Amino acid sequence: MEYDEKLARFRQAHLNPFDKQLGQGQHVQEAGDDPPCRDVLLGLSPGDPAFQCSERVMDLGLAEDHFSRPVGLFLASDIQQLRQAIEECKQAILELPEHSEKQKDAVDPSEEEPNLRVLLEHRFYKEKSKSVKQTCDKCSAIIWGLIQTWYTCTGCYYRCHSKCLNLITKPCVRSKVSHQAEYELNICPETGLDSQDYRCAECRAPISLRGVPSEARQCDYTGLYYCSNCHWNDLATIPARAIHNWDFEPRKVSRCSMRYLALMVSRPVLRLREINPLLFNYVEELVEIRKLRQDILLMKPYFITCREAMEARLLLQLQDRQHFVENDEMYSLQDLVDIHAGRLSCSLTEIHTLFAKHIKLDCERCQAKGFVCELCKEGDVLFPFDSHTSVCADCSAVFHRDCYYDNSTTCPRCARLSLRKQSLFRGPSAEDQA
Predict the structure, then answer these.
(1) Is the pTM of this model over 0.90?
(2) How far apart are the first and last CA of the chain?
(3) Cα dihedral sign, 228-230-235-237
(4) Whole-angstrom Cα distance, residue 244 to residue 311?
(5) Tens of pLDDT along 142-165?
């Protein structure tokens, strides 16, 4: 029978009874209508002899939507709508006045968090900038400033989400710089991954050279191995390689080493004459810098006793390298980097010329503190920082270099001072008393 054939086709799923678009001219269920019977769904017309809806009603379960999507299932259309909603929210936030209270309330619901947090000697301050995209140093995820609260340590510039603050286990690097301001002067002192028990040197996560479960990355400064969360392949100049090999090529270091080297880069803690005295024999720029520094130390007594120099604050020309006016032995890593690049020689030569011009040409008081060679008693006024002069180590008298080395006698000024001291200790003679 025709009815049986259509029923068989229905059972074989050749017809979809749940398709609400049943074809042109077919009935579509409206809200409030009674559900259609099986015969209507099978395409039988009311005039068909086989149409007997009241006698052959079979419960197909149309009263409930058994074929609806499960809760939590996202299809392509749902993801597209979600992305569109996110974009609309972003646009609505951007349309609000920048840095206004409305924008803050819409963006950051956690404004009640404190502005200052102190953890493991870190001093974390809540950042106000919302447009800068940073990376969290703890979880390595991106910090979305528009929708997330984040903090920065004012000491070591450690950045992290507010939710990651309580997970930090590494103390502030600045405390180490304050208490132990010294470099590792051995080139990549590797001890082996087995000495670390195959764990990250910082967070103690399991690591291996094969990358299972995590890749082991070596820090060229400490020689230790770190996981990918603690070692981001940052590049930095290694002090030991610069001092021993005059090698300034950046090498891969861990995040902790990078922050330590960044804080130490301007600290004068390198005494080159003790660490590697042969370096001055191979690097001519170092010899030139040492001579300029020695001249500046000889100029310093003129400036601290000259009112015009104090008012002009000439010594502030070296405020970024304060150790240059204290000694000529200590160097910072930044000094060596600038010497290698040729920057320090140019800038220090300009400062040296400015200082010499003030003493020898511009200031009469400083000119009056010059010396006349007592050996030849000829020539111009001499100053201890002149290139053709020699200075007596005992009385600081200045002579022409040729005169000083050609004269085999003692320094005239030293002899004169010695006679004066003897007369003071000897007291007045008998003739003087008479």
Answers:
(1) no
(2) 166
(3) negative
(4) 42
(5) 887 777 888 888 888 888 888 888
